[in-house]
Design goal:
heterodimer; A: 173 residues; alpha+beta; 6 helices; 39% helix; B: 293 residues; mainly alpha; two-stranded parallel ribbon; 67% helix; globular
């Protein structure tokens, strides 16, 4: 089942504070390993997840620009962190605070990415949801070709108004 | 004040400009060393080399200055490479250290950006030493020194060309750049990290320190890099939500240590420490699926 075939619902699942979702991907973003909680919260089996693009859990409420930021950061060997709304197989959703970092081999070459996702504080979700909704509206209005640039413009204006970079904003949420 | 030419300089020109500059020390370090030097002979005799190394470590400018000083002397004497602050102190000696610090220029401690950078460096170094000790590292002080010197490029720019890091800060606050690295490239044409690595090469610092600063080539280098990232996050927010994830990543490098042990060198409030430990506590339970690497 592809994410676009799933009808999103309002059914939220809240991650417990004492467990975390862990997964790894290859350089192309295909899932190479998962832990129990990922299986439990996404609703997919291990077999359905392994080898699939990580965007199998991408929720349509998420602006594409956020994932552009993610890929820009990790492709350059940096860590990425951010709040992400994920889509369950049954249409429900769960929010996470995601931390993605490169996996390197003995020579320092990036061989894949590790993502640790944990409980997101409700106050942070409330604040970031409003921003994401504005970004998504701009992306939708701009159309698929210019969506990412439009989403980034909204984020850029938001950050300029706050006088801070993206990482500082995430740290302060 | 930068000239119009300097605004157009790339990393190579800046390295050429900075590599032979006399490195300053912190004002508080100079005051401390003056106070120690004014003690009577019996009291100064009681100061151990390790005590002195601790004072030096609290000042990343002095750590760098002393390392370069010791290495310059070594090249003439063909001795062993200086790879720790303690070794640099021992090579230099008390009298020369006092003289070196006393004659040094001092750096502006009213700059918030510079203070932040200095604090990040010292914090990263302290965390790195604690973590390296937990894996019975052959020399935790080497890993700590590498973490301390990871911000050298930015630290020198704050002293010799503060207009550059200030321009980067403006770029980041403007919303035109989302990440510090991108803000650096957009504002000044290179990253602070590129500057650090180029300076390390130009200074011909010991190979092991250079490798550790690069941060990706070995387990020890990865510990130094994680310590630098964690220090950066803590300076941004001492309850940063990334700390549990950093800990999970670190556990893969030091599997023999418990999460509680790994968290000891990380200076966070006790209640947040408990929250972080709770956040990672369930990993020890059996997990299905294919085990994440």
């Amino acid at each position: 089942m592809k994410p676009r075939d799933i009808a999103p619902t309002d059914r939220e699942r809240v991650l417990p504070t004492d467990r975390y979702i862990l997964s790894t991907t290859d350089l192309a973003g295909r899932i190479t390993s998962v832990n129990d909680l990922f299986i439990e919260y996404s609703g997919y089996t291990e077999a359905e997840l392994i080898g699939r693009q990580h965007n199998i859990v991408r929720h349509p409420d998420m602006p594409r620009a956020v994932f552009q930021l993610l890929w820009d950061a990790i492709a350059e060997g940096e860590q990425f962190m951010g709040y992400v709304k994920n889509l369950c197989k049954d249409g429900g959703f769960y929010w996470v605070f995601a931390h993605v970092s490169p996996i390197t081999d003995a020579r320092g070459q990036i061989t894949g990415y590790r993502s640790v996702r944990r409980h997101a504080r409700p106050e942070a979700i409330a604040r970031v949801s409003a921003l994401y909704a504005d970004m998504l509206a701009a992306e939708t209005a701009a159309g698929p070709r210019d969506a990412i640039a439009a989403g980034l413009r909204v984020l850029s204006a938001h950050l300029a108004a706050q006088g801070q970079g993206y990482e500082a904003m995430v740290a302060a949420l | 004040m930068l000239t119009s030419f300097q605004w157009r300089w790339g990393v190579a020109q800046w390295v050429e400009f900075l590599k032979d500059k006399e490195i300053p020390v912190l004002l508080r370090t100079q005051a401390l060393m003056q106070a120690l030097a004014s003690l009577d002979a019996a009291s100064t005799d009681a100061i151990s080399a390790r005590d002195l190394a601790g004072y030096v470590f609290a000042d990343p400018y002095l750590s760098l200055k002393l390392l370069r000083h010791a290495e310059n002397r070594r090249s003439r004497r063909l001795g062993q490479e200086t790879t720790t602050t303690l070794a640099a102190v021992l090579h230099t000696g008390w009298n020369e250290l006092v003289q070196l610090v006393g004659a040094s220029s001092v750096t502006d401690d009213s700059s918030e950006g510079r203070n932040n950078c200095e604090f990040r460096a010292v914090l990263a170094s302290s965390i790195a030493r604690g973590w390296a000790s937990l894996r019975s590292d052959v020399s935790p002080d080497e890993v700590a020194l590498a973490a301390l010197l990871s911000e050298s490029g930015e630290l020198l720019l704050w002293h010799f060309a503060p207009e550059l890091p200030l321009k980067v800060a403006d770029e980041l606050a403007s919303g035109r750049a989302f990440r510090p690295l991108r803000a650096q490239e957009q504002a000044i044409g290179f990253t602070f990290r590129q500057m650090t690595l180029a300076l390390v090469e130009a200074w011909e610092l010991p190979q092991i320190i250079a490798l550790l600063i690069r941060g990706t080539d070995s387990l020890r280098a990865n510990i130094a890099r994680l310590a630098v990232d964690t220090a950066r996050d803590i300076v941004a927010n001492n309850r940063h939500p990334s700390i549990p994830a950093q800990l999970v990543n670190l556990k893969r490098l030091i599997p023999g240590a418990s999460y509680a042990q790994l968290l000891v060198p990380v200076p966070i409030a006790d209640d947040y420490r408990e929250e972080v430990l709770l956040a990672v506590s369930a990993e020890s339970e059996p997990q299905g699926g294919r085990k994440p690497q």
